[in-house]
Amino acid sequence: MAKIKGAVTVNKERCKGCNLCVVACPTDTLSLQPLEVNDRGYHFAYMSNPDACIGCCSCALVCPDACIEVYRVKLD
Amino acid sequence: MELQDIIRPENKVYAAPELLDQVHMHYCPGCSHGVIHKLVAEVIAELGITERAVGVSPVGCAVFAYNYIDCDWIEAAHGRAPAVATAASRLWPENVVFTYQGDGDMSAIGTAETIHAANRGENIVMIFVNNAIYGMTGGQMAPTTLLGQKTATSPYGRRVDLNGYPLEITNLLKELDGTCYVTRQSVHTPANVRKTKAALKKAFQNAMEKKGTSVVEVVSTCNSGWKMSPEKANEWMAQHMFEKYPLGDLKLS
Hints:
The structure holds 2 protein chains of 2 kinds.
Chain A: E1 3-10, H1 20-24, E2 30-32, E3 45-47, H2 58-62, E4 68-75
Antiparallel strand pairs in A: 1-4, 2-3
Chain B: H1 3-6, E1 12-14, H2 32-46, E2 53-57, H3 65-68, E3 72-75, H4 81-91, E4 96-102, H5 103-109, H6 111-120, E5 124-130, H7 160-163, H8 169-174, E6 179-186, H9 190-208, E7 213-219, H10 223-226, H11 230-244, E8 248-252
Parallel strand pairs in B: 2-3, 2-4, 4-5, 5-7, 6-7
Antiparallel strand pairs in B: 6-8
Helix pairs in contact in B: 2-9, 4-6, 5-6
């Protein structure tokens, strides 16, 4: 069976740290930065567990600020 | 496989819609408006009506929608978006006109315009964002506020004897002969976001085919007004709002 591997990029200046992508992620890939903040003072989202990402787009769909881009590859 | 091998343009499966301007949105973190803006921008681009789409923005939190979605917009006086949309769609019949209104604009000050535009069967799409509170002015009670819900002007909860019952304006619009498609959706989970996008697409197609008025209500959260975190607001909405405002198609024709 082909394995799917995904990755996301977060536009960290646009992110407002609402945490909705972290809740929507089925594989616990995303977290909010615990210490770092962006220019507006928000704890932005990042891939804390990149190996788990399956590129399902759940995070990007629920993101209110459209700051997530999703990439996906099929491994044979 | 390393991350930089995955993050390549040919592997991209989801990106922000091109019609959504890359400016900072003024909405609070976790606001449902952002998701709905994104869906509207995606649907307009996918239907190829970028040059023909005319939005009418309301007064309320979504007043700056014209800064975020890159199509033509008209800013209407408070509650008068359906009246302005009527003019725009009658004078330029080739255009696809939609209104984007909150519950204060559509079901409080603009009730008359909403009902009459739908009753005349104007070829417009009405997008109704129902978050059961007046978000922009600081969380006061709206006509759609649930019984018992605490707001700035109902600090002990909404009471029937004092404030009356919540207004389900979408159910009223369903009864009118002018509407061709009335639906109620939400955007709190990925599956619901996909359903809402399909509903918006159908509504815009109805407007393109001149079938009559389409109403898409999106039951939304106002986490600032409700005094909750975004994820708690989504949970609260699923627990309480859907009881009064059940999701699904109310009218299909």
